[in-house]
Design a protein that fits this description.
By secondary structure, the chain is an all-beta fold. It has strands spanning 5-6, 11-12, 16-18, 23-24, 29-30, 34-36, 41-42, 47-48, 53-54, 59-60, 65-66, 70-72, 77-78, 83-84, 112-114, 119-120, 125-126, 130-132, 137-138, 143-144, 152-156, 159-165, 171-174, 183-187, 194-198, 201-204. It has a single domain (5-94, 109-179), classed as UDP N-Acetylglucosamine Acyltransferase, domain 1.
Length: 211
């Protein structure tokens, strides 16, 4: 079993759990308590707040900001410069401006879930109180303000669905409507995986066995 690696210039606080084979690179700050699974890569100058839970085989590129309330499942890629948020209506102070609001989670702190296999492109901003579905893909520079369904490709500000992507990352359907048309004969030209779509929900016809 390969031990975890922490660069000498990284700061990993007490209470952080690092899985075997995980590498934490220069100028990363991980606050405790938090969990990062096995065989992950945490790129330079990334910040991970307390309470964050990250699964196995996750790639976080440089300059990623992961705030309290975020859960990232296994096999996710988060590209450089992505910012997560956890408060829809943030204020620095109380309404009378007499004191700073505390930084600890409260009733206004909303969770974000990134499901297994998803990809978030470079320079994205991800809202809170939502999820990014299994093997979904968020195009670079997008602003995610609502839940992204499984296998959907979303782009824009705010992000909207424009296609469907396979587990292998290749697009197998492009569409201009709000939801994709119902189909039961879709396949990926790259790897041959087959899919069906009903009311925007994508089903794998040859599901891959879970590792």
């Amino acid at each position: 079993m390969t031990p975890s690696f922490v660069h000498p210039r990284a700061e990993v606080e007490d209470g952080v759990e690092l899985g075997p084979g995980t590498a934490v690179w220069a100028d990363v700050h991980v606050r405790g308590p938090a969990r990062i699974g096995a065989d992950c890569i945490v790129g330079e100058k990334t910040y991970i707040a307390y309470g964050v839970d990250i699964g196995d085989r996750v790639k976080l590129n440089a300059f990623v900001y992961v705030c309290t309330g975020v859960t990232i499942e296994q096999g996710v890629m988060v590209a450089a410069g992505t910012i997560f948020t956890n408060d829809r209506f943030p204020r620095a102070t109380t309404p009378d401006l007499s004191r700073l609001r505390p930084s600890e989670p409260d009733d206004e702190t909303l969770p974000t879930l990134v499901r297994e296999g998803a990809t978030i492109g470079a320079g994205c901003v991800v809202g809170c109180g939502l999820s990014i579905g299994r093997f979904a893909m968020v195009g670079m520079g997008s602003v995610v303000t609502r839940t992204v369904p499984d296998f959907h490709l979303v782009v824009g500000q705010p992000a909207r669905s424009v296609g469907l992507v396979c587990r292998c990352g290749q697009r197998f359907l492009r569409f201009d409507a709000a939801v994709p048309p119902d189909r039961d004969d879709l396949s990926c030209a790259s790897c041959g995986s087959r899919f069906a779509v009903r009311s925007g929900v994508v089903s794998e016809l040859d599901p891959v066995a879970r590792v």
